[in-house]
Amino acid sequence: MPSSMGTALRVTVFGQSHSPAVGCVVEGLPAGMRVDLEALAAFVARRAPGNDPWGTPRREPDAPRIVSGLNPNGETCGAPLAAIIENTNTRSGDYGNILSVPRPGHADFAAWAKWHGAQDVPGGGHFSGRLTGPLCVAGGLALQWLEGRGVRVAAHVAELAGIEDEPLEALDNSPAANARLAGQMDALADGRRMPAIDASAGERMVEAVMSARSQRDTLGGIVECAATGVPAGTGSPMFDGIENVLARALFGIPSVKGVEFGRGFAAARLRGTQNNDPYEVRDGRCVPATNNAGGILGGITTGAPLLVRCAFKPISSVMVDQPSVDLTRMEPATLRVHGRHDTTAVIRAVPVVEAVCALGIADALLAWPADPQ
Amino acid sequence: MPSSMGTALRVTVFGQSHSPAVGCVVEGLPAGMRVDLEALAAFVARRAPGNDPWGTPRREPDAPRIVSGLNPNGETCGAPLAAIIENTNTRSGDYGNILSVPRPGHADFAAWAKWHGAQDVPGGGHFSGRLTGPLCVAGGLALQWLEGRGVRVAAHVAELAGIEDEPLEALDNSPAANARLAGQMDALADGRRMPAIDASAGERMVEAVMSARSQRDTLGGIVECAATGVPAGTGSPMFDGIENVLARALFGIPSVKGVEFGRGFAAARLRGTQNNDPYEVRDGRCVPATNNAGGILGGITTGAPLLVRCAFKPISSVMVDQPSVDLTRMEPATLRVHGRHDTTAVIRAVPVVEAVCALGIADALLAWPADPQ
Amino acid sequence: MPSSMGTALRVTVFGQSHSPAVGCVVEGLPAGMRVDLEALAAFVARRAPGNDPWGTPRREPDAPRIVSGLNPNGETCGAPLAAIIENTNTRSGDYGNILSVPRPGHADFAAWAKWHGAQDVPGGGHFSGRLTGPLCVAGGLALQWLEGRGVRVAAHVAELAGIEDEPLEALDNSPAANARLAGQMDALADGRRMPAIDASAGERMVEAVMSARSQRDTLGGIVECAATGVPAGTGSPMFDGIENVLARALFGIPSVKGVEFGRGFAAARLRGTQNNDPYEVRDGRCVPATNNAGGILGGITTGAPLLVRCAFKPISSVMVDQPSVDLTRMEPATLRVHGRHDTTAVIRAVPVVEAVCALGIADALLAWPADPQ
Amino acid sequence: MPSSMGTALRVTVFGQSHSPAVGCVVEGLPAGMRVDLEALAAFVARRAPGNDPWGTPRREPDAPRIVSGLNPNGETCGAPLAAIIENTNTRSGDYGNILSVPRPGHADFAAWAKWHGAQDVPGGGHFSGRLTGPLCVAGGLALQWLEGRGVRVAAHVAELAGIEDEPLEALDNSPAANARLAGQMDALADGRRMPAIDASAGERMVEAVMSARSQRDTLGGIVECAATGVPAGTGSPMFDGIENVLARALFGIPSVKGVEFGRGFAAARLRGTQNNDPYEVRDGRCVPATNNAGGILGGITTGAPLLVRCAFKPISSVMVDQPSVDLTRMEPATLRVHGRHDTTAVIRAVPVVEAVCALGIADALLAWPADPQ
After folding, report:
1. pTM of the model
2. Would an 8 Å CB–CB cutoff place A78 in contact with chain D?
3. Homologous superfamily of the B4-367 domain (CATH)
4. Residue of A nearest to B238 (CA)
5. Among A331, A367, A264, which residue's Cα sits nearest to residue C1?
6. Cβ A260–B261 below 8 Å, yes or no?
7. Is the pLDDT of residue B329 over 80?
8. Is C171 at the interface with chain D, CB within 8 A?
9. Is B267 in CB contact (< 8 Å) with chain A?
10. Spacing of C-alpha A70 from chain mean position
């Protein structure tokens, strides 16, 4: 179903921007996992709006209430875990003529064409970025399970307004590169406001955001995510490989228009002798020496870090007049989006990408692990 | 399941490079469709090896035998359609030490890690490009069904060895651009050996391939695919949108490492005012004037052409010595790949991308059409 | 996933007997359906406990709160509909030693074996009859959609303590039988306390229940359900036929141990000449004259009424000492169940069977309708 | 999809009675299992027609050709296993007017209503009992895997023409009953022509079949199946429990109209004190002393034998005139079925029920095992 994903670990997301609540149901979490509710709330808070000068002033506590799936000891009990986030701070009045005039770049028109006017329009309905809240709840639970298995996931803003952050050290698989990657992951976990590895790049990104905001315009960017500790042999051939599962999931985040693994599009310009990752023996095990493949061959992990990059288009809600159409009269109309909006999706999207990658990786570990020997 | 995909139109692909046969089962084809077996064979032949100086000399007739799913009139009958392609021309001897020494860039090592040595090694087993044959059978059937609905799908080699073809005219949605795109699609349908729009670019690509081949090296590239005639309102929010479905499917083609829609990664550097597609009234209907979105917003079609690009890494089978590991002794080993191999995947991949896109689009039209009004 | 079902109309049920809430997410409801919340509450109330002398004294308002899936006009909007029922009246103290001593006939021991003690024990956890509340919410929505398509669903207690109700007139398909069946459905819709067609049989059933209750024992029984108005050609061959879908769903209701369609087990003693339903022309259409098949052949509807019967075992919570095992000490133990329990499941199960049948039929109509002509 | 089933072990069945071939694809067989092709052929041969005086004279070698999924050592390799059975002995001429006149009791009319005449009519098309051949191939593979896990599956004709066989000793779970059940399973494995435990009951069944055959009539019956060795804690709550999975699968066998587990419908007439299975300690483990539940509570196994019974309606192809309708003229018509047909399905269905149960149980063990401790 459209709002569900996963084979052995399945998440179903519900809610609309202005419905009474948003939430998720997570099926397949292994029983007996103690859930750290504080850590979960802290993770979810990373995507919450209202914390930063460049974001929407809408303040959402986003505190998830878990209404099922735990036993009296606070452990997962094998039954579906449901979490609810109440929508307390909705202001439908702001959305004026978008009820009949679709906002360029938003899903308004596509949803109208699909549901012939029955779609829930205010705030983007089910297409709203608000739905990434429950995704983070589900992903935060997956992260806790992964942590117990030695898997670590971290993302950063790799590019914003043309400004590039230091890349994650994941295209190499040498011990030195692995150590540098671990250091980058540590650094990103320190709670910095702008999730960039290079603080000075981060500052320039903030400036670019403030500048675009002052021009009533918006920005796109790239989020890069790495995962370490996923054992070799996880995943599947063909259509349920790690790349397939993650790509399907990542394109479910609003504004994502491109996904690449390892060298990705850059590999298209390489030769085989440049792009192949040779194998070597390390600690008695076979490992790829380099990691142009981003840790995945034939859909299955090689044991090297997973590396994925997602392109986000600029947020659609620009504050200038845009040509559109009044769908009730089928006449040209000019639209000016009001309301409270972010200038860029990529900053708040960083934990969302981590959440979605965690869900996909946990699902692969549960559904498509290496066969027992 | 890993080797299956689709919600309402489901394809299951089976076979290994050197198994007795490869094939597919297609479930969900609407009943009563007359299958043009000749057109199907012609489509499948476009990816068959052995036709060109740059390809593997392995000749595979690839003639599919349909063993179920048709009624005596040659129409689909509602039951699963199964097609078999016999493997007549296999030469296991060529694969020598790859049984214990994984080829860099191939899935050999990942499969060994997953199945602990039980995987079928010769020729790449289930990971072989040979499996794109049955995919083309299934996709060729989907293309016939789409044609009856006014949907057209065409791909080309957009880039090879850094040489770019003329892009498909699909980022604009003006009547003039639509007409130019139709002309490009006509041109690509003329059976040209090198599927490039610009014949001179195509010639330079061939030269680059021959040059890399003489250096025992291989090349990556980019395949671009457009589809027209998909009605607005097709698809779904979140995880079963057109992008999700196509991305999951396209990453199932061997060597694909990146997928982007519309402006894709380039959109990450644009501002909202540049990237938003305004709406206008045309023939009494609302249409996007431009098409930076590649025809998809919120996972749902806008009525503008679909546009997707796939990055292919260079083929892994380079003909030079490569460092690897003997997995039975867990010792370093040097590998030289023998056998018959293509120099690049992107040329033969063009019909495969068309096939996979056709399968995804047909599935979306059947599973997630606009609601009936 | 275990707690989800459906292909095009998917319901996911969450909650435990004593978790903060129970609820469901319904995906795939066609957009634009106005939901009658009052009718929904009335339907759900039919299964609510505490209304009758023979039931548990636990009073649950069971008023579902719909938190997503509706647009401001109260119509389905295409997004998942989520409904929450708060658990306000839980008394964990009643469940004493069942935490370590499994109740015979309950799922306690099986759940302990599966989840090694992490399962949520009090009140039966996710296995509780309480979870049929959200099922009725989902099924009540399906019933409203079906009503708009001319489909009617009605069930009754066909047998309880050996006392048989008048059977539904659905094994015949004559116009007279169809009229009598419609009359039976009207009668059952009048809100009678005991859902039996024959009031005197119903009275005797009540007496039998009160008698068993006074003996601290419990009773099983049979619920029979018919559906009219499902067009011929709905459903699928093999594993997604109407029988497959309904059987899978009905065995999800606690205590169901048998499911049969049409003549069911009795057909095993008939000859072909007795059991075949001949065809005749009626109003210019081909119809089966009789309906031993229960409206389904090859998994696909014939246009005659659907008829299904479900056997419910007696409720496990008898109020007498039973031999069991203390799982923490792995020693024999005697268990006496306390708490508030029904004497039989079949009375409250009547709307649950209607709900589950409605979900299955609506799913079949959406996922496996007759092909468009 | 209708012709597929399974979560972790998925079988897709293709073919029609008179299509070039029938077959199956099995996905999810654990890698490294050596397939005993001879044992597989012997199992499949048990359902093959033409061996007995009461059966259809159609002789089908039914030798499956495995075309993928094995490595050069004859072991499963992790890729989908596909098997083909060629249809060599088809005689379409026998089916005369059934092309326009549906046979009472067959799926002809329902299929016509669904596919508007595009269905494959001869021999029943995809609804033919012929499709149970590939099911037996898939189930035979599952049986080999289960055998390696200590799971045993055996079925018999429990009732035919009102004649009852000795029941399987599975409603008790005492060591003595377990031993008797093992003995019954041994006896049924001896290759007897009539799969009944009590040879004299078997002889009377044969006589009843020959008698009905001489009267051009057909018979229904009941097949009972038990499985031992399934560890406690296998399965799932709600909709993916053992009962749900098996019921969905068993209703996919042509002619099945009822399915019950343990006491089944008889439990509806018992009291809780009679039907509950008390627990006791045996060999340091908790086990149910009796087995009225048929080894399943809350969808999850208790460790006691699984017990399921399936009601088969009489075969529809009676050799006498039957009223029907000519669908092309929509006029009454008289139909006499010609061709070669069985007198009862239940004898040949015995290995089919074993196959389907094996597939369901293997799937549950792979998809829904007890959580790792």
Report:
1. 0.96
2. yes
3. Chorismate synthase AroC (3.60.150.10)
4. A252
5. A367
6. no
7. yes
8. no
9. yes
10. 25
